[in-house]
Amino acid sequence: MGILEKISEIEKEIARTQKNKATEYHLGLLKAKLAKYRAQLLEPSKSASSKGEGFDVMKSGDARVALIGFPSVGKSTFLSLMTSTASEAASYEFTTLTCIPGVIEYKGANIQLLDLPGIIEGAAQGKGRGRQVIAVARTADVVIMMLDATKGEVQRSLLEKELESVGIRLNKHKPNIYFKPRKGGGVSFNSTVTLTQCSEKLVQLILHEYKIFNAEVLFREDCSPDEFIDVIVGNRVYMPCLYVYNKIDQISMEEVDRLARKPNSVVISCGMKLNLDYLLEMLWEYLALTCIYTKKRGQRPDFTDAIILRKGASVEHVGTSTKYSPQRVGLTHTMEHEDVIQIVKK
Ligand SMILES: Nc1nc2c(ncn2[C@@H]2O[C@H](COP(=O)(O)OP(=O)(O)OP(=O)(O)O)[C@@H](O)[C@H]2O)c(=O)[nH]1
Ligand SMILES: [K+]
Ligand SMILES: [Mg+2]
């Protein structure tokens, strides 16, 4: 039996045990066991239980959003509010121990929302279930970093550091540098823009540090040494992140106003259901999805069944053999949000 199953067995037994003087000792033991198993789950260990039990959730829907945050910031409360899935929420830390998927239905798209255990400082080194949580976050299209508005800035910078340390780059694009290792010929260095942070010499030094002596390097933008290193190392994940400050019912209006003005940030209260619609709008923007509706000749468009595309996708991505009415466009025409497309069979 896995640890999660043991936990669930004990929880069931606690639930069916009547609370009275005679069962006091038994209940106490069960709770101690429960605490022990929870602690085991949260310990970094090489045992099977820390491998990823309960984290292998199938991707489904049109996009995936992962909820990352310290314990008890309100991640599960949020999932239960936004989806038809209920995830247990409680005032104690590490209530959630696995990955709990739910679905947000918005503008005809199904967005998979993943509730995850809380993570703490040291998560990247395997503290708590940090490794598993971060591994799931890497698979998401957007990360929601949920923060406790009453705790100021600490949580945000600590978690950014954790994610940074495992190669996750938040709200940054892939540096526009062409880099190709070669068999010989030394390092050929070029740039199409004026560089203020890197020079040919520095690039050479960095490459030598990585034991690379032959390569083609072309800077197409004014990148920093760190960005260049990211390109050499590879394996970086560039993802949009929305900072969501929850529990604004607990702070002053001035503080709410200050947090709301920060870049990539939204302030909400799950408890009082404040600003959740605006959060969805922002999330939609960050996901950069476009809905296309299909219609058959002589019939009205079917607005209940959307085809979801990445922003900037063209007609070709919808499918071939298509013609457009009233406007006819080529296959490379970029689809706009809520376009209607008529499919004509040849
Ligand atoms: N005041 C206030 N409390 C909230 C709000 N949202 C959630 N809470 C409370 O915060 C506590 C923690 O909520 P959870 O949803 O369990 O938090 P979590 O982030 O899932 O926690 P872990 O699973 O332990 O990491 C619960 O007691 C919630 O009722 C809010 O907007 N305002
Ligand atoms: K909690
Ligand atoms: Mg939770």
Automatic annotation (TrEMBL):
Alphabetical keyword list: GTP-binding, Nucleotide-binding
Keyword tRNA-binding listed: no
GO molecular function, one term: GTP binding
Record keyword Protein biosynthesis present: no
Listed InterPro entries: Beta-grasp_dom_sf, DRG, G_OBG, GTP-bd, GTP-binding_2, GTP1-OBG_CS, P-loop_NTPase, Small_GTP-bd
Pfam families: MMR_HSR1, MMR_HSR1_Xtn
All copies of domain OBG-type G, residue ranges: 63-288
Recorded superkingdom: Eukaryota
Protein name: Developmentally regulated GTP binding protein 2
Taxonomic source organism: Equus caballus (Horse)
Organism phylogeny: Eukaryota, Metazoa, Chordata, Craniata, Vertebrata
